User: Fold these one by one.
Assistant:
Number 1:
Amino acid sequence: MSAAARRHEEPEMPAEAPEAIGNPAGTEYVTRGARAHRSARPHLRMVSPLRPERASRGVFALVVTSVLGIGMLSILLINTSLAQGAFTIGELKSEQSALLQQEEALTEAVAAVAAPESLERQARAMGMVPSENPVFLDVTTGKVLGKPKAAPGTRTAMPRLLTPADATAAEAVDNGLAGLPVGPAAEQDPAAVDAAAAQAARNQEQAAAAKKAKNPNAENNLWEDATVIDVTKDLGSTDAGLVAVPVP
Amino acid sequence: MADPRKRGTILLVVTGLVLTVFAGRLVELQAVKGETLASEALGQRMRVLELPAQRGAILDNAGEPLAVTVEARNLTADQTMVTDPSGEAEQLATILEVDADVLAARLTGDRRFVYLAKELTPETWGRISDLRLPGIFSEETSRRIYPAGDLAANIVGFVGAEGTGLGGLEYAYEDTLTGTPGEMRYERGPSGGAIPTGAQSRTEAQPGTTIRLTIDRDIQFIAQETIAQQVSSSRADSGTVVVMDPQTGDILALATAPTFDPNDPGSADSRDLGNRALTEVFEPGSTAKLMTLAAVVNEGKATPYSWFKIPPVLMRGGEDFNDHTPHGTLNLTLSGVMAKSSNIGTILAAERIGGRKLSKYLKKFGIGQKAGLGFPGEASGYVPAYDDWSPTSMPTIAFGQGFSVNAVQAASVFATIANDGVRLQPRLVDELIAADGTASTPEVEDPTRVVSPETASQVRAMLEAVVGPGGTAPNAAIPGYRVGGKTGTAQAFNADCGCYRGVIASFIGMAPVDAPELVVAVFLNNPRVGRYGGQLGGPVFKRVMTYALQARQIPPTGARFSRLPLGG
């Protein structure tokens, strides 16, 4: 290898030493030639070799080895990181599919609970009945459209209605999931949820007490004279406005 | 062989030959078969994984799911890897809730692949996989679920074990709902994982198109529940309710009873799997008088106030025609004919326009043509061509016998009157929503005018008289609303005996009658308790209509009731 390299370099200096072409020991020729033309030359001196041959070979080997080493090392690193990436992809994919499955299961559960049949069952369990005569209130004119009529069936004490906050909190406790992010409502301060629930209970107690005071005999007839509901009174006292209060 | 030179030559020749063979083989492997072999080798490393396409969902008009596809797992086993069949079967049986012995039998043997259970939920598979049982594996699959159970089951249909639609819209829209499966190709290392630097390609699956129906699942639920109750209390063979929005032709509910649970179609009677409202035809009976009387009014041959002298019996084509209740000679207005559902009065009115015109009007109302809902097995009904009419055809057809319709066609006739005389093609599929979110609406026929708006309005006033005092269906009235409708008690043709046996009791009505927003049609096939359409269909109509009016937020118009003179 080094010999070939030398041969390439030699043609660069033909003017100085034409005789040296093809001779590895160029120094001697130069000296001999000089002697032939100028016989009386006082002193000779050593010309250093054209290349520091031994050292060059060592450096070269070092360079090549290190290039090779670095190359191998980087291939190793790249492969490792690719493999690592493949593992990460695998892990993330399984995590993704687990989450997707969880989402699907939850969606399925919600869909089953929200199906009309299940809603009707729950509503009936709460003592609700289907309305037999549609009645509308025209908000602009205040006119009642349709013929209002009491719903059929036996009257029962109105079950305490839950605010969304109540429901979420209760459900979370039921499922042993208290504190987990089960929905937007759960982000509320638990103290506020408790306060809202307490407020709702108080509202109902007050209403019932007021009702009792006015008409002590009509314990269960909460709807008897509830045809006019003062919507301005209690709206806004709880966040959801779902606390229905018959006003005496 | 003593000569070393000769030996050398032989050696040279032999070596040469061997090398030539080697070279030839090299050329063959590299140049001739090179590509084939390389691809074979790649094939050994390359795994192709099919990525199943998700089947499109079926939604109601508010986007609530009626049919959706979810992930599932099939439980499989490699019998050669199972070490303790009975022990593993025991553990699996508690989770799968099946007989351990059956499972143990499936775990014993030397088959490399057997199914143990199909379509498990991912959670169930999670519990099984946590047991780390040797030889137990799973494969990914999907499961079609109907979250609302039997709700709209007769419309949506059901799928078979392979997940392909076998009934209803699942069947009719099979190609639309099925997506294009994708595939993943990768080079697999000895450990089974993908080689990161190897060739990889992934073609994503194209999910199927989602179908949004015109069905309102809340109204559908009430309709289904109400008709099921009435079918059982009247001990009828079956019953149907159709709810339509006359202004759009949208079918809001299409309920039949008995029905089935699409999550388990195998356990249902095969006759309950179709949609009776579309596949079964019957002679409409008195509800068809609406067409006859509307035609007469539209032709200007009578008004709701025109008087008719109704004899006790009318002879036409050699046969006696009479009314459902015997009477002496009556004087009825055209409104009275409608309100009291007089066959004789209807024949007399129809004679003012003649059979040819009557047959033309029936055709314009869509009788004898498919409603065009694209439903499998949808019937078109049958009406004889006018040229084939016998002398008794005209009187029979005038009051709704001698031709057949399905429930949707019958409801569509009333929807036409409700829509001021313009017939719209009934719609069941509102939108097809492709995987990329683009929605397209199925094309419908152009609206056609059947009768003038004035005629429609006059006929509606006559329909109101039916639910008013003296009409045949006072129990269909809804307090506060102006309601109109028509009863029908038609003789039902029984294919088994080839004779008329039993009746189809029906009531079709609309509200509010002065500006109709809803049409509800009720049919009861062969009731054994009760007989008349008003008596059996009226209450069902009332309950479904009452609910639908509230659900669609349709307040009463507040207009006064019309009181047409009926006569008597």
Note: Residues 223 and 246 of chain A are 7 Å apart (CA to CA).
Number 2:
Amino acid sequence: MKILVCISHVPDTTSKINFSENNTKFDSNGVQYVINPYDEFALTRAMWFKEKQGATVTVVNIGNATTEPTLRKALAIGADEAIRVNTEAIDGFAVAKEISEVAKNGGFDIILAGKESIDYNGGMVPGMVATLLNYNFVNACIGLEIEGNKATISREIDGGKELLSCNLPIVIAGQKGLVEEKDLKIPNMRGIMMARKKPLTVVEPVNNELKTSTNSFEKPAAKSACKIVDNVDELVNLLHNEAKVI
Amino acid sequence: MSVLVFAESTSEGKFKKSSFEVTSYGKKIAEQLSTNLVVLTINATENDSLYNYGAEKVLNVSKTNLTSFNAKTYASIIKQAAIKENAKVVIIDSNINGLYLAPIVAVKLNAGYASNAVEIPSSVSPFTVKRKAFSNKAFNNCTISTEIKIVGLAKNSYGVVENLVSGTTEDFSPEIAESNIKVESVEQTTGKVTIADADIVVSGGRGLKGPENWGMVEELATILGAATACSKPVSDLGWRPHSEHVGQTGKPVASNLYIAIGISGAIQHLAGINSSKVKVVINTDAEAPFFKAADYGIVGDAFEVIPNLIEKLKEFKANNA
């Protein structure tokens, strides 16, 4: 089984988000970058397949050289090889095109990704990759089993879940449930040492056409101070008469 | 030329509030572009109701083999409708199904796509729309430069706007693409408000000390017609299902009212609930970060405050019924 895991390089969830150059650039000053948490669930499930069912795991990122530590971390967690497509990730469609090019040459049975990145939250790359490759695609996946050529997938729906099945190859966009929080792996020293020797191939992009771009950023408007109320009578009164939400 | 909206309906053919919201939003963009609005529906039973929100033309697909949602099949129908109506902008709700199918539609139409838009476009040439980014911690103004533009609308960001027009409904018979994905089973709780649909969400944190104490959260939610939710530690501890986890890596909440009980307000949690209009926090610790993000707060023990609040709300509901 050959698995490709798509890895986004994103600011850590605790990051304070700031912008520079007149709100046109993300201010990376003091920001720690991590594997996108949704992608980490996907990577962890891929490692499970590798250990239990036998698989080779390739990780791919679209980004410039600054994203390499994130790919090395994925290798330290246990991926076998990494590919970096040397271009900045600006437009989800362009990113999907690059990933689909990598996938075309790789003969992957499963392409796993998080359902969205926690920076731009576009939520579009996995579905686009699948459509470009004409592979089956399941979004918001909370469980994945593979048996031979068949995938069984749980998908979150409004107020519940549905169980789906289809043949490989497949693109999966995952979230928590694919694995549990406690299953996430922190790379150990041996993994980190081994990661240094694993192949990290840099390939040039095939496509530079952007369908979308960001011209500026905004932060939410500052909110007024919290009204501290002493009792529930006053709270109910304010929610009814002032906030008009009940 | 036209603006095309896909208005999703439930398996019973009924529209949700968000279907009226995307229709209202589409009407406004059609006005910006001086063109007509076309709304696509699949097996919907109340197409006339869309006229109230500006739908001049409704294309309804009625096929008995389309009773359950399938992203690829639906995407193919939306693509065919967009081509038939010469749509320049296609609007799809950024809900769980809309987020699933919109990227497929974008590739099929070779169109740029911006999900989670929160406002009408600030300009239509270039076509620039403000959308949520950094998991609700910020927004980006995104320009779509392709001939056809796909916009995903974030829930509760534009609102339902009445705009009665005299509309017509046409039957639409697109080719139905076969899907290779088989639905084996569906587990869905009925009669319970989901976080995605709820106007009010009542959420509990570790301050509630254990899963056995969720009875009062449920009771409060029932009185308010609210959905129940929880913080990340609570779902990680297994006190509540993952589907209730709200926050940066959980579900986003964009309700009118969010009540946080015993949740301290970690930055990741606050990001997830940022789009809620009114936030109430009940916590024993007056220094909890949630008080900086909330509109109303009670410093107090949830085990005393919540039963009182339940009693007070019962009285309020009885008087305002």
Note: The first strand of chain A starts at residue 2 and ends at 6.
